[in-house]
User: Fold this.
Amino acid sequence: MTKSLFRNKQTKKLQNVSLQEDLALSENMNATQALLEKAFENCSDVVFRQVNLFGERKALLVYIEGMVDRQLLDQGLLHTALNSLNGYQEEPSVSMSSQLDQALTVGRVLAALTLNQLAKGVLDGNVALIPDGAKSVLISGMDQAPSRSVEEPQMEPLIRGPREGFIEQLQTNIIMVRKRLKTPRLKIESFTVGELSQTKVAVAYIEGIATDSVVEEVRSRVSRTRIDAVVESGYIEEFIEDLPYSPFPQVQNTERPDTVVANLLEGKIAILVDGTPISLLVPMTLWTAIQSSEDYYERFMIGTFLRWVRFVFFLIALLLPSIYVAISTFHPEMIPTNLLLSIAGAREASPFPALVEALLMEVTFEALREAGARLPRQVGSAISIVGALVIGQASVQAGIVSAPMVIVVSITGIANFAIPRFNVAIAVRLLRFPLILLAGTLGLYGIGIGLLGLLIHLSSLRSFGIPYLSPVAPLTAGGLKDVLIRAPHWAMKLRPRLTGYQEPLRVPPGQKPGPHHSGRNEGE
Amino acid sequence: MFRRGSVVIILITMIFVCTGCWDRMEINDMALVMASSMDLEENGRYSGTVQMVIPARQIGNTSQKTKQYFVESGTGSSIQELIATEQSKLSRRLFVAHRRVLFIGEKLGRQGIKDFLDHFGRNPTTRLRTYVVLVKGGEGKNALNIDYPLEFVPTEAVREMEKLVGGMAVTMRDLFLAASGEGIEPVMGVVELTRSSEKVNAGNTRKTFNLTGTAVFKDLKLVGYLNARDTQLMMWVTGKLNSGMLTARLPDRKGSASIRLTSAKRTVVPSIQGGKVKFTIQLEGQGTVEENKSGLDLANPKYLHLIESALEKSVPGETRKMIELVQKKYNSDIFGFGEVLHKKKPKVWRKLRHSWDELFANAEFIVKTDFEVTRAGMIGPPLQLKEREIVK
Assistant:
């Protein structure tokens, strides 16, 4: 009872924020000015500027300083419209706005009937034009938000592949996708999320390839999100994922337009958010954790090999410390004798049990990593020196930590870096600790239990209706071509079964290159 | 939701209760036993010795003089009692899962090992791959006190030698299999503690391990030994031989050639003739010439055939002599002929199994050999010989 009351109160509060008094606008310039000035009270960045429209009529320009290109404003609006004395005729049949539309060389004229529309238009970077004795309009197309240039993505660097990464501006990002998919079938639906931030969110998919029901699901999940502000795409991610209490991410993210395009072609759906270079991709499967875009750009053999390396390191990152703890404290008979003697010799001086030692080292490593990630780049190198010297050498020489444990922790750290998807890597990072605890209390049996629980969780997890372990579980034989190996592009004839079944054929068969092919081509 | 949560909590608690034994043990709380020995004392009690590594001296630069192992012993009328007395002298728990070798004193072997073997099969930490070795003419604990500088623990040398030399390497598992099997008797590797040529101090020579043949058991009691040469033939007959040296004497040429075996096979065909059992043993082998003292030009295939026929003549005789020794003197079917009969003629075996001891003692053996010399090494005639000395 109390719970439901509380909930009601909260929703009410949010509604108060969003609902403003909406007023219809009159054709009186001064009245509109007064309303707007009240709305933008204490907003020093909003400019109110009186001009003469078409030479004779008084008008008010309202815009935000800096969000409007000043040159365009001068040349496109003020010069043309104000100086074309002959252009204006008092004719009741032709409205002011359509005449203005014809006179303008840049931008478009949009009608604004209410105060809210007008204010929102100004906040979006449009210019509000409020003529005396005519309807107010918004002139769009002159916005110029500050943004950085397109740079190489920092999070997902590649050796071979496009150097272009998303930036904080949605429009630019959409163009980067669009220019790679020049088809009208690429649909980009726009949403606005965030009561205060009014962030633009674009949902992109390829019509006919992406499953309609999944597109509809994404649409509904994005549009029902109610939050005060969307600062980063992570805000959206947490509202649209299937199971929030899972350590595994169910939404893939990337800052590479080429990755977005490749995933769109597999029938996935991209969610681009204004204000962040990180875009979201759904549905996600676990196997994307071992896939890097470079696999598809380099030759397929190295792609397959690297995939297996990542597989192995994925398991090492998850299991190595716990297996070391379990075997050295519960099952020393499993270690080859000579190795056991080395470990025994190294462990001799160590004052802590293996479990404590493992936790100690892992936590220290996490601290080092965190410190290294947050530090300014100039001081960052100091951390690695301190880390290498203090943890790597001094602690072993002082007999506080045994050398094998340092090796285990460092290999685990390296293995974790080898997982290309950062959001999966941090899930593995987190899961390591419960597994170490299980290993330290129950031995290999504990690891078995932990892995079993993990497997049950993973196989029941879904991302937008797609099983998280597909195409391995449920098994689709053709799908393994892109999981266990990276088949050559001419051999990957079909799209993934579960996301791209509406238009399965990707590559027409019979394109395997060879001398036979080239010979025939020469003949023709 | 509440019900599901409580079920999960109950299941998780069950996980922790379900485990049978709590066997968490830090490595630095263990005494790693590398080898142990069993002996019989005058008063009929068992005495046992364990050899443990000192982990702190395993890595880093340990000086030459400090020992990397130490030994401790105990006595008791049973193995458990014996271990308890050993354990009471140790600061760390005995950990036998890495034991490589178990030495058994000759006296204990003669008295019989049946009574104490149960411990090694029952205890989950003992390793069935442990080599079991009989110390000929000595006590097991003497073997544990021998220094052997080449390996990190002296007894490791015995394990390596068992693997390398290809002698009679018998593990705990083999012992159990042979002892419990019908129509087969167990054997054991034999180690002798001989004087090494290295002088230690004041002219005293060091003792060292020497693998010499096979110990023959009957009803798990030591009845006798086979020497190294007989051991090789015995392994050939049982099909376990895969390497070894054979010497072919060439009487008409006044020389000999040494052949290294590269493959050895055998087939045993049993037959019954009027209440008497007859075994036809066909030994097949391949080898390469390692040494040629005959002056023959071995590039000529004729002389290779000569060596082959010399071996085909000598091997069956020696083998028959060896089988006769085991058959008449020890009367112990260490070759597993009974088992062969069991496999080939199960119906006959069912009738004969109870009187197998006598039947084996009176069985007849025919040994045939088929040998092939495949290569003669890099050269034909010996390089040091003058042209006229070479028999072409």
